[in-house]
């Protein structure tokens, strides 16, 4: 199986190679087979990307917003028309089942392009009445924005970052995760086909050092990262050192709170979605599932029964519901946490092993895993695992569960399941998390802002909030009388 692109980087509307960059081997996580061989960017490649973005951005910013939107809209249509082929590419790159990539990856990027294509025409500054004189504000682009992506939703992340950046009149240089470098190149081709002027969306490959070089480049005005808290802190420090704008979409250890009056099947469905989708490699996953004591045993029994039916297997088979993890390091990390959970005294209610699957000997699979009897101090309840490992904890009352849900340095997401709606709003109102759900979990339509509180991040993606983070305010005072001067 090959998915070799024409070259490693996409700059100024065309593919570019520089064999001097470090080798970057791309493998299919289901088999370990190499599907592409690329090179990380050299300083020369980075300078080419920066120079073309610098050249292209001012004219782009001068276009009428609806004209920029029209191009994004065309790109969104192409993404949808090519969804099947892009989903296959994403499955090969990430190992996620095609059943998921068909609906959650290129399709989500297309949603973002479509949304910002329309929204930008209505995104304006304000008029401020000063009783005679007045002022107005302009929303102006930042200039060159850098996007740095994680490996779990590669084209979605590239779309979520580039759509608001471009709609607002910026240029973007995007560095995908070195684990999943392919689909951002496809997005760049699509932008060109849709009529985006050359240089406005450049893709450069590489490891963390390439991200760091971009984040500290003097020509760059903003950096937006999706990744771990540790990476976010490093990039934010670099951006701060140069007074650049920054958006940080980082990790979490989010709570799902299930009260005893919740609809049992819906709560279990939400908890499973929030732990096993994408083999658990989702930043907003609700990996601490708090269940009220009266419901606890019934919940666990039915949860295990349902989780047993999850179909692991060939990611390209449309019937497969769970694929492998993205790479060996992540596979080992997750298995390590399963051992930690056992040694900490949690009860392994399901899974915990590497399944053997015919034809996928090199595959990085892990069974859906459920721990019960988990306590707040266990490492599996405190640290982000980023794999298919759910921790179930029990609680007695509302005040207690709010305090325990908030007892974490993270604050990305939270969910509450209950039929008592006043209670649902009361509880969500007190949980310190940026993205919350009531009687649902992990749905992230582009119309709603997405992002974290506390160490889970700064800034928001999607919705009009993202346009705010890809623009800056200029205030203009207008005098309508004489200048009153004491001199
Ligand atoms: P990493 O934090 O390891 O990497 C994220 C990106 O940053 C990669 O492109 C990486 O490059 C790059 N990078 C690494 N070091 C630096 C540096 N010093 N300067 C600049 N860039 C750097 O995350 P993963 O890709 O491993 O993804 C998993 C993590 O991301 C999880 O913790 C998860 O919670 C989080 N995540 C958060 C999301 C959110 O929206 N909040 C969404 C998805 C994931 P390279 O990979 O090439 O080293």
From TrEMBL:
K(+) 1 binds at residue 93. It catalyses: betaine aldehyde + NADP(+) + H2O = glycine betaine + NADPH + 2 H(+); betaine aldehyde + NAD(+) + H2O = glycine betaine + NADH + 2 H(+). Binds 2 potassium ions per subunit. The keyword Oxidoreductase applies. K(+) 2 binds at residues 454, 457. Keywords: Metal-binding, NAD, NADP, Oxidation, Oxidoreductase, Potassium. Its cofactor is K(+). GO terms for biological process: glycine betaine biosynthetic process from choline. Transmembrane segments: none annotated. Pathway: Amine and polyamine biosynthesis; betaine biosynthesis via choline pathway; betaine from betaine aldehyde: step 1/1. The active site is at 161 (charge relay system), 249, 249 (proton acceptor), 283 (nucleophile), 461 (charge relay system). Gene3D superfamilies: Aldehyde Dehydrogenase, Chain A, domain 1 (3.40.605.10), Aldehyde Dehydrogenase, Chain A, domain 2 (3.40.309.10). It holds the Pfam family Aldedh. The modification Cysteine sulfenic acid (-SOH) is found at residue 283. Dimer of dimers. Involved in the biosynthesis of the osmoprotectant glycine betaine. Catalyzes the irreversible oxidation of betaine aldehyde to the corresponding acid. PANTHER family: ALDEHYDE DEHYDROGENASE-RELATED. This is Betaine aldehyde dehydrogenase. It comes from Oryzicola mucosus. The gene is betB.
């Amino acid at each position: 199986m090959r998915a070799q692109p024409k070259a490693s980087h996409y700059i100024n509307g065309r593919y570019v190679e520089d064999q001097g960059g470090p080798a970057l081997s791309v493998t299919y996580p289901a088999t370990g087979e190499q599907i592409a061989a690329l090179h990380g960017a050299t300083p020369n490649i980075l300078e080419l990307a920066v120079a073309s973005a610098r050249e292209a951005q001012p004219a782009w910013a001068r276009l009428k917003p609806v004209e920029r939107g029209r191009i994004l809209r065309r790109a969104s249509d192409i993404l949808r028309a090519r969804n099947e082929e892009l989903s296959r590419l994403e499955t090969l790159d990430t190992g996620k089942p095609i059943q998921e990539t068909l609906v959650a990856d290129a399709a989500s990027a297309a949603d973002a392009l479509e949304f910002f294509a329309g929204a930008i025409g209505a995104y304006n500054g304000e008029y401020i009445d000063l009783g005679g004189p007045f002022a107005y504000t302009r929303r102006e682009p930042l200039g060159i924005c850098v996007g740095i992506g994680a490996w779990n939703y590669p084209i979605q992340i590239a779309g979520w970052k580039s759509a608001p950046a471009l709609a607002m009149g910026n240029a973007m240089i995007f560095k995908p995760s070195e684990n999943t470098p392919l689909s951002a190149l496809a997005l760049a081709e699509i932008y060109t086909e849709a009529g985006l002027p050359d240089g406005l969306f450049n893709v450069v490959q590489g490891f963390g050092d390439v991200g760091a070089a971009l984040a500290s480049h003097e020509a760059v005005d903003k950096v937006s990262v999706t990744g771990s808290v540790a990476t976010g802190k490093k990039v934010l420090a670099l951006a701060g050192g140069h007074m650049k704008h920054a958006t940080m979409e980082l990790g979490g250890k989010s709570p799902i709170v299930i009260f005893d009056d919740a609809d049992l099947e819906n709560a279990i469905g939400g908890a499973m979605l929030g732990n096993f989708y994408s083999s658990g490699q989702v930043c907003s996953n609700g990996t601490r599932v708090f269940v009220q004591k009266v419901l606890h045993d019934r919940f666990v029994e039915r949860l295990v029964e349902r989780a047993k039916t999850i179909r692991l297997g060939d990611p390209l088979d449309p019937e497969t519901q769970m694929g492998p993890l993205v790479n060996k390091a992540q596979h080992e990390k997750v298995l390590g946490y399963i051992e930690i959970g056992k040694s900490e005294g949690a009860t392994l209610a399901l899974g915990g092993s590497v399944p053997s699957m015919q034809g996928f000997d090199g595959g990085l699979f892990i069974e859906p895993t459920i721990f019960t009897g988990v306590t707040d101090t266990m490492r599996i309840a405190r640290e982000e695992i980023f794999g298919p490992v759910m921790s179930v904890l029990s609680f007695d009352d509302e005040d207690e569960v709010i305090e325990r849900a908030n007892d974490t340095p993270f604050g990305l997401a939270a969910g509450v399941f209950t039929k008592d709606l006043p209670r649902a709003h009361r509880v969500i109102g007190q949980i310190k998390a940026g993205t919350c759900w009531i009687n649902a979990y992990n749905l992230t339509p582009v119309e709603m802002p997405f992002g974290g509180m506390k160490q889970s991040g700064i800034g928001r993606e999607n919705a009009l909030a993202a346009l705010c983070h890809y623009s800056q305010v200029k205030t203009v005072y207008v005098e309508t009388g004489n200048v009153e001067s004491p001199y």
